[in-house]
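Weekly puzzle thread! Below is a chain. First person to post its structure in token form gets bragging rights.
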Amino acid sequence: MLSLLTKLHVLIILGLLLSGCNTMQRIQNSELMEDFDESFFLYSKHLRWGHFRQVTTFMTPERIGPAMDQIDTFKDIRVSKVQPITWILNSEEETIKGEIVVDYYIVSRSVIRSTSQKQTWRYINDVWKLDTGFPDLK
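Winning reply:
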């Protein structure tokens, strides 16, 4: 009888440990998503306000140079909406992949357009960085 109780205790303890690991993973994922939500909110705010240089501060170092070269082409662009469609968190790789839709206005041609972009964000040094560059605003 004692060995049966001992086995039962071991199983209960293992169950609690495993569920504790699962809880810690959920907490970590929740914190990653909260950080991402804040970063994406600021990114989309700067994009909507036409602060394209500020948008580059959300990009990985490899993307900043090419993005800076594009900024002058956006003089005639006014972004009206940045709508996230889907986000998928890969907590092991600390990445988020998703898609956004950007509605924008070309001032000189009085044209309203929409474009979509698949994005990859990476969690680097406790900060979310966009590893995709600017949406295609033409």
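Puzzle host: Confirmed. Bonus trivia for everyone else. Confidence is low (pLDDT under 50) at residues 7-14, 16-27.
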